[in-house]
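As a warm-up, study this chain.
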Amino acid sequence: MTKTLDLAAQLDSQAAKSLFDELGKHIGAPLEIRAGKVAFLGAMAVQTLISARLQWQSDSVAFSLVEPSEAFFADLTTLGLPPEAVGLTAAMEIAE
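Now compare it with the structure written out below.
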């Protein structure tokens, strides 16, 4: 059964630690992460999401990031990262 995790609105350096801890609870299980409420995405949170995507990929377990907000995409761009870095496709719709 796929687990679902809703990302917080503010993913700054403090939130990255909580995100890391929460992701750790789901290692080995299929995971869908909803990013529609994200208003700020910081570098440490992005690193945490990239690391998680790579861990799930290494374990051959389903990992998806869905419903990204406009701010999520904008902050990825500001950080110089393509959407694919966190498991999104460039054609994915932005959450309203």
